[in-house]
Specification:
Layout lengths: L11 H4 L16 E2 L4 E4 L6 E12 L2 E11 L5 E7 L8 E3 L3 H10 L2 E7 L33 E9 L2 E8 L2 H10 L9 H9 L3 E7 L5 E3 L2 E3 L3 E6 L4 E2 L12 E9 L4 E3 L4 E3 L4 E2 L8 H15 L4 E8 L13 H12 L17 E7 L3 E3 L4 H10 L1 H14 L5 E9 L5 E9 L3 H11 L13 E13 L13 E9 L8 E5 L3 E3 L15 E2 L5 E3 L1 E6 L15 E2 L18 E2 L23
Parallel strand pairs: 1-15, 3-15, 7-30, 17-19, 18-30, 27-29
Antiparallel strand pairs: 2-5, 3-4, 4-12, 4-13, 5-10, 6-13, 7-31, 7-32, 8-9, 9-10, 11-12, 14-26, 15-25, 16-26, 19-25, 19-29, 20-24, 21-24, 22-23, 22-24, 27-28
Helix pairs in contact: 3-4, 8-9
């Protein structure tokens, strides 16, 4: 049984007070990223973790931990020390291309999208939107005092620019002494941080870096990302040890990939970032600063909470700031070892029917009452995205799904849907219920004379030949979760422990029963579909000459009338990247939000 939905944001206006940073790993004392371990230098110089990206993949009892680090410091050999639950062997460790982390970061990042309002008088079919170790280093692993100090070198091997040793220790004082004896200039006062890991029986993965094999850029080492995997009943990230190198406040951003759906913190409070906020046009030029202020406000409202910024199928997105992850990329991040042995027991998603895409067709609408059937059809077209979304969710788990259903809505005198029902259906109950739930939020023009009006209309659902498109429900079964926690050196009491979480949705172009855009995170029976999404909307500025204009249909930028060139519409999605360097303290949320949300 899944745990309950832990935390759902309150209405937007009450969530937007100000105060924290979505920061980075800089040498400045108040800005640092968390690292699941600590750095040591052969020369004893201070090292600053300048950037860290962490991707964890979980299946059964197997964890695959991938991390990309860069550091700012002198160009001398240094090492990373990371606690692990078991002795790692050479086949458990490999290096990865840096590009894979850029892909994951961009896919799960908060995003800014622009929509332009369609001509309110146009008869237009509205489809889906936007889916679119060197010699002489001075330190090594060979001290003869290891046995006396209770330290055992369990394994040694070389991977890329890393010379790796896996250690075990009987007590933290002996480990602290052994590291010093072997040239690892660990910071003073490290022993208390090592103590709980030694007491718990952890091993220590020590990756010494030969800087002669590393690319340096602007005084920073661009290290090859490391990936290692192990089997353990616990799913945790050892972040306390990173406090050894902490100069102040740290940010931890973790990406989790799992076929079990989204994950959340088991030992910290959980919160969701506010999403689906319409923002001012100026946000385009200050998106990083805006989002940093919004994150500050959320963290201030939920002190100490781990904030969910993304939970979505790993091989789909809507809108997509970068292409979704393909099977090769998922294998690179660990799917290749999740599916081996007995440790990875998570059920895989059904195999897809290749070369087919889900498609929804709207049939003719029958109207009984005071509404023009053409107007009714225009309204139904406006909301086709919501029906398509319902089919995509079902198609993701059953790519052979096809069928038809007829729905009926009864309108009140004001045009609001008073009731809705399924007249006939060959669809699964969940898909029909999803469509029915959306119908209750449709808004029609008031019927002539205030007459009771019934609108009946059919939909057909089928997979048609074609190349699979990004943005459609995927087939890998993996969900990508992005979690963010900010903390000080004295405030972090425990390592981050993760658990399966209830499914959520939010941050999409989907309208609720009141006709308003969905707000925040909400529980769902379908796949996870939550993202941090912020929208600039350009209202229709042309003439409106028809009797019953339909407002609020959003899509791509219209063609330039002079040149015929199309603009970059909702596909021009801007992700909030490099947030470590986003300016802070220079903006207020009120400058970017409508008056009602300030």
């Amino acid at each position: 049984m899944r745990p309950p939905l832990s935390s759902v944001p309150t209405p937007a206006a009450s969530r937007l007070a100000a105060a924290l940073v979505l920061a980075g790993l800089l040498a400045a004392p108040s800005r640092a990223h968390a690292f699941c371990g600590f750095f040591v230098s052969g020369a004893g110089a201070k090292l600053f973790n300048d950037a860290t990206l962490v991707v964890m993949m979980r299946g059964g009892t197997r964890t695959v931990l991938s991390m990309q680090n860069s550091y700012a410091g002198p160009p001398e050999d240094f090492a990373m020390v990371v606690p692990v639950p078991v002795v790692l062997k050479e086949e458990n460790v490999k290096t990865l291309p840096r590009e894979i982390f850029e892909r994951v970061d961009a896919l799960a990042a908060p995003r800014l999208v622009e929509f332009w309002e369609k001509d309110p008088c146009a008869e237009e079919e509205v489809g889906t939107m936007g889916r679119g170790g060197g010699a002489g280093s001075g330190f090594g692993v060979g001290s003869g005092r290891g046995a006396d100090l209770g330290v055992t070198v369990e394994a040694t091997f070389t991977v890329g620019e890393y010379k790796i040793a896996v250690l075990s220790a009987r007590d933290s004082t002996g480990l602290d002494t052994w590291l010093h004896d072997n040239g690892y200039a660990i910071p003073a006062g490290a022993e208390p941080y090592l103590r709980p890991y030694v007491a718990a029986g952890s091993k220590f993965f020590v990756a010494k870096v030969d800087v002669s094999k590393v690319t340096m850029k602007d005084g920073r080492a661009l290290l090859s990302p490391l990936r290692f995997y192990y089997d353990s009943p616990d799913f945790a990230l050892p972040v306390r040890l990173g406090l050894i190198n902490s100069a102040g406040t740290q940010d931890l951003i973790v990406h989790v990939l799992s076929r079990d759906g989204r994950y959340e913190a088991a030992n910290y409070a959980n919160a969701f970032i506010p999403t689906n906020l319409d923002v001012a046009d100026a946000t385009r030029d200050s998106f990083g600063a805006f989002y940093a202020a919004l994150f500050d406000a959320t963290a201030a409202a939920s002190p100490g909470a781990v904030i969910t910024e993304y939970a979505w199928s790993a091989d789909s997105c809507d809108p997509c700031p970068a292409p979704a992850l393909d099977d090769t990329e998922l294998a690179t991040l660990g799917a290749d070892v999740l599916d081996t042995g007995t440790a990875a027991t998570a059920d895989a998603a059904p195999a897809p029917l290749t070369g087919r895409i889900p498609e929804v067709k709207l049939g003719a609408a029958a109207v009984d009452g005071g509404l023009d059937p053409a107007i009714a059809r225009r309204i139904l077209r406006k909301h086709k995205n919501q029906v398509q979304y319902c089919y995509e969710k079902a198609f993701a788990t059953n790519p052979a799904l096809a069928g038809a259903a007829t729905f009926e809505v009864v309108l009140g005198a004001d045009g609001v849907v008073a009731s809705a029902k399924i007249v006939s259906s060959t669809l699964p109950d969940a898909l029909g219920a999803c469509v029915l739930g959306g119908l209750k939020g449709y808004g029609f023009p008031p019927p002539a004379g205030g007459r009771k009006t019934t609108v009946r209309f059919p939909y057909t659902f089928k997979a048609v030949p074609g190349a699979p498109r990004r943005g459609w429900g995927g087939s890998s079964g993996f969900t990508l979760t992005r979690l963010h926690l900010r903390y000080t050196k004295d405030a972090l009491g425990e390592d981050l422990v993760l658990r399966k979480a209830a499914r959520v949705e939010g941050g999409r172009e989907v309208f609720g029963p009141s006709g308003a855009l969905e707000d925040g995170a909400r529980a769902t029976a379908g796949p996870d579909a939550f993202q941090a999404r912020y929208v600039i909307r350009h209202a229709w500025a042309g003439a409106i000459a028809c009797k019953d204009p339909v407002r609020g249909r959003w899509g791509s930028r219209p063609a330039d009338k002079a040149t015929g060139a199309l603009g970059a519409g909702p596909a021009a999605v801007t992700p909030a990247l490099d947030l470590a360097h986003a300016p802070r303290g220079t903006v207020t949320l009120a400058a970017y939000l409508p008056a009602g949300l300030r």
